[in-house]
Amino acid sequence: MSEYTHEYKTEWAVTDWAEARNLIQGSTPAAQVLKLAEEMGELAGAIAKGKDRDYVVDAIGDMMVVLTIIAAQHRTTLSICFENAYQEIKDRKGKMVDGVFIKESDLEKLKYEL
Length: 114
Prior knowledge:
mainly alpha, 5 helices, globular
C-alpha cells in the first residue's frame, strides 16, 4: 500500500468516525473552529514548552481531525483543500523576514506602506 493510499484511508476513516458520532451534521463549523483553536493552543503550548516530538505530533493530528470534520461539513475533503493550497503557493516567490516567509506581492505592499 502506498503512502498516499494510507493517507486517504485515514482521512476516510476519520470522516466515518465523525459521522458515527454525529460530529458532521450535529455540529456547526463555528463550533468546530472553536475546537480547532483549542487544539492549536495545545500545539502552541507544546512548542513553547519545548515538549518532545510526540506532543507535537499528537496536537497536529488532533487539528487534522477537526479540519477533516470542517471539510466534510463543507462537502469537501482535507486532501482537496491541501491540493488547492499547494496549487496556489507552488510558484510563489518571496523572501524570509524575521523567520516568516513574505510573498512577493505583500513585499510590494509593505514597500509602499513604509
